[in-house]
Amino acid sequence: MSVRSKNLNSVFYAHSYHPIQAGSIDGTDVLPHDNAIFRAQLCSSIGFYDPFGDPKATGDPYCTLFVGRLSHLTSEDTLRKVMSKYGRVKSLRLVRDIVTGASRGYAFVEYEMEREMRRAYMDAHHLMVDDSEIIVDYNRQQLMPGWIPRRLGGGLSGKKESGQLRFGGREKPFRAPLKQIPYEDLKKLGIPPPPEGRYMSRFQVPSPPRRERNLSDKEEDSHRRGSNDRNRTEDTLRTSVDIEERHYKRSSSHRDDRSRHHHDRSSSNREHRHRSSTETDRHSRKRKERDEHSPRREKYSHRSPHKD
């Protein structure tokens, strides 16, 4: 088959949950092959399970991480210490048996920020905690449409000896279809067909669903961006005005310095001219007084001698 030949070594993941499809290794089954799948299909068809009806499932689902395959000896403090390496843990709930109080081997960890949850989603998978290899996944209970938990016959992954293997998740993704995809039968039963052209390599990590932003959030973001742009524009204008004022002040101070220097020069020149004229008058007056007090010189006319 062309699809199989092209995607033989590829895998794909489910975006929504369907019990019959989750029980198939390639997502092409149309009939349940065990009683657990039948129970999960029944709960799904009559709406018996409400994913938002759990009063203990509090917090932001986009910041919450599912941690499974924990050791029964792992405590809340140990798990908090391990998961705090990837971000600030806001709340942690280790699921325990309602009668005995013993750990059931899985927990929900809520982080302060969504990026911290995604960091733990990428790095904490297959981590060893108390000699047990844990698995990490996003909060499918509230973020995966049609989700049915394992206690009602649904869930994902599982062990082979239990006979309740489920595919389409991070731990056990769907394989490439092993037979012709029965599109008509899948459509009649309301089962989404396996994706074509959206296969991934086994070394790629599927991304958790992102938060859908509604119109009010977009308007708020646009308003925030507009206010930031206005603030930036005002800061730019204020900066330009400050630069012009400083330039004007420097220019005016430079002009004042030049005018002051010119005034000082003109004052010194006038003073110098006044001092020069005063000294000239004084010298001329002294010369005149000296001439008046000195004896008058007689003027002799040199006549040539002549004979009587």
From TrEMBL:
Database matches in InterPro entries: Nucleotide-bd_a/b_plait_sf, RBD_domain_sf, RRM_dom, U1_U11-U12_snRNP_70-35kDa
**Where is the RRM domain positioned along the sequence?**
63-141
Gene Ontology MF: a single term? snRNA binding
Give yes or no: UniProt keyword RNA-binding. yes
Q: Which UniProt keywords apply?
A: Nucleus, RNA-binding
User: What GO cellular component entries does it have?
Assistant: precatalytic spliceosome
Basic residues bias (residue ranges): 299-308
Q: Which domain of life is it from?
A: Eukaryota
Location within or outside the cell: Nucleus
Among PANTHER family, the record links this protein to: U1 SMALL NUCLEAR RIBONUCLEOPROTEIN 70 KD (PTHR13952), U11_U12 SMALL NUCLEAR RIBONUCLEOPROTEIN 35 KDA PROTEIN (PTHR13952:SF6)
Q: What protein does this entry describe?
A: RRM domain-containing protein
Question: What is the scientific name of the source organism?
Answer: Canavalia gladiata (Sword bean)
